[in-house]
Write a structure and sequence with these properties.
The chain is built from five helices and twelve strands. It has about 260 residues and is of the alpha/beta class. The longest helix has 15 residues.
Length: about 260
């Protein structure tokens, strides 16, 4: 399930979606739990999307929804991040798929993207839980690639264990390319002695709340489980003066 705003869902782009034929060109396990799946669109028609949106992937009678983590327009390649589920239906399909089979996607869907691009005075907070990183990756990549300027960009990524972080190299690249970008990795398993001081510990919403006093002029983009996103929304609105209109969310419920 996907929501683009926790309270008011804006469907302004829903009528622009199309169906495309794709084939799997790459499937890579980058951790015990995360699969990077790359699909190539084999149709002649162009795929247009805003970084942060998602697609539906049709596998036999099953439909899965995934945020687009990256899209290479020149080669029409879509990158998805999938959490592996042992004995899960879709995980079994990925294990047994045939490389040249043709599948179908539909999209793009959603309004989880930056509307006011390249706003010099804007401060943005991105918050991701687990594979919620995918949609955030697409948005930040777009900012870095196009040299869009923002006053400050904060990226909080929360996981249960240090081994749940992945693709750290691209985040370090963002840090090197944009002096206004700050990365805050957050680990919920509270064991300060196990990890370096590079990390923060606790729940995502608590860490963000400890770092800011007033969010009234700041935009916030959150992507993760429904519970995570709702807690962040409730607390930042109630205690940190975040405006409802400045909160954007992409909520997912994983399927097996």
């Amino acid at each position: 399930m996907k929501n683009n705003h926790l309270i008011n869902i804006n469907n302004e782009l829903q009528n622009n979606y199309k169906k495309y034929n794709v084939k799997i060109i790459s499937l890579k396990y980058i951790s015990n739990y995360i699969i990077i799946l790359k699909l190539k669109i084999v149709d002649i028609k162009k795929f247009f999307y805003n970084p942060g949106q998602y697609i539906k992937l049709y596998i036999d009678k099953d439909i899965r929804q995934y945020s687009i983590a990256d899209y290479i327009d020149e080669y029409q390649i879509i990158e998805l991040h999938i959490k592996y589920s042992y004995n899960g239906i879709f995980s079994k399909f990925l294990h047994e798929h045939k490389r040249n089979n043709i599948y179908q996607i539909e999209g793009p869907f959603g309004n989880f993207y930056i509307k006011d691009i390249n706003n010099n005075n804007q401060i943005i907070i991105f918050i991701a839980g687990g594979t919620g990183f995918a949609a955030i990756k697409a948005i930040i990549n777009n900012i870095i690639r196009n040299n869009y300027y923002y006053k400050k960009i904060y990226f909080y990524w929360g996981v249960s264990d240090i081994n749940d972080f992945y693709m750290q190299d691209i985040i370090y690249y963002w840090q090197n390319k944009n002096k206004n970008f700050e990365y805050i990795p957050v680990i919920s398993a509270y064991n300060k002695f196990k990890y370096s001081s590079h990390y923060k510990f606790g729940h995502l919403h608590d860490v963000v709340m400890n770092d800011f006093d007033d969010l009234s002029a700041i935009q916030c983009y959150a992507c993760g489980s429904p519970d995570m996103v709702k807690i962040i929304y409730d607390n930042l609105i109630k205690y940190k003066k975040l405006s409802h209109d400045n909160f954007y969310s992409d909520v997912f419920i994983p399927k097996k």
